[in-house]
Amino acid sequence: MFTIGRLADYAGVTTKAIRHYHERGLLAEPARDSSGYRRYTAQHAIELVKIRTLAQAGVPLARIKDLLDADTDTLTAAIAEIDRDLDDRIARLRRTREQLAELRGGDRLFVSPEVADFLDELSRAGVSERQRSLERDGWILMQTASPEDASVWVAEKRELLGDPEFRALYLEHDAAYGWPPDDPRLPALADRTRSWYARHHSRSEARPVHSEAVARLAEQSQPGASSPAWDRLASLMRG
């Protein structure tokens, strides 16, 4: 006869696990003796070892009760089914690990390789992390709405970033975010920006937009991307 502690030691489980098996109806719970202790028999030990073995093999507790006294064919079929379920779980875990590995690559989990390369170029050019995050979030929305349009736009924007004048304007616009709205540099920046766009034709602006939502997303893709200085700069550029 065993106490619950000795039974747990014998089977290599915890007393908590034994009580849990009692609650789940997997292991019969013996009556208490005159001293108030539950006394377990060799049969309890056999049943507990079978339960432990099935549980360690990955059999869900909900299935163990049906399998404890199953015949060989039933047990074999059930184990084969559980094995297939484990294969599916392993495949899902592998996909999760792959996604986690991609997360270590930062933006590449969320945007196309072309956009990710463009964002890397922004970092190398000295663009602030705030502006870079705004760009990334905007591209996530744009790619979802129209991947074809987004591909054309990012190709052009990467070309533009190679233009020293455009890159200087981009960096100055980025810096202007925190300027006072009455900063005397703003009118000059607005003039230079208008002048640059007047001299450069945009392929993407002339391209028909495949989805009206894209245009709206382009305007809404930078929530919070506003400051008093940027608002005034936009007003100055409208003339």
The whole-angstrom Rg is 33 Å
Q: Catalogue the unreliable spans.
A: none
Number of separate domains: 3
| Element string (H = helix, E = strand) | HHHHHHHHHHHHH
Q: How does the overall form come out from the CA principal axes?
A: elongated
Could you tell me the number of beta strands?
Answer: 0
Q: What structural category characterises the helix and strand content?
A: mainly alpha
Per DSSP, the total helix count is 13
Largest sheet: none
Range of helix content: over 70%
Proportion of strand residues? under 5%
* Average pLDDT score: 84
Distance between the termini: 95 Å
Keywords: DNA-binding
Domain HTH merR-type: 1-70
Protein name: DNA-binding transcriptional MerR regulator
Pfam families: MerR_1 (PF13411)
Features:
single chain, 239 residues, mainly alpha, Multidrug-efflux Transporter Regulator, Chain: A, Domain 2, 3 domains, 13 helices, 0% strand, elongated, MerR_fam
How would you explain this protein's 3D organization?
The chain has 239 residues and is mostly helical. It has 3 domains: 1-68, Multidrug-efflux Transporter Regulator, Chain: A, Domain 2, CATH 1.10.1660.10; 70-104; 110-238, no CATH class. It has 13 helices and no strands. The protein has helices at residues 4-11, 15-23, 42-56, 61-67, 72-103, 113-125, 129-145, 147-161, 164-176, 185-199, 203-206, 212-220, 228-238. Helix 7 (129-145) runs antiparallel to helix 8 and helix 9 (164-176) packs antiparallel against helix 10. The termini are far apart. The mean pLDDT is 84.
What topology emerges from the helices and strands here?
Blueprint: H1 4-11, H2 15-23, H3 42-56, H4 61-67, H5 72-103, H6 113-125, H7 129-145, H8 147-161, H9 164-176, H10 185-199, H11 203-206, H12 212-220, H13 228-238
Helix pairs in contact: 6-7, 6-8, 7-8, 7-12, 9-10, 10-13
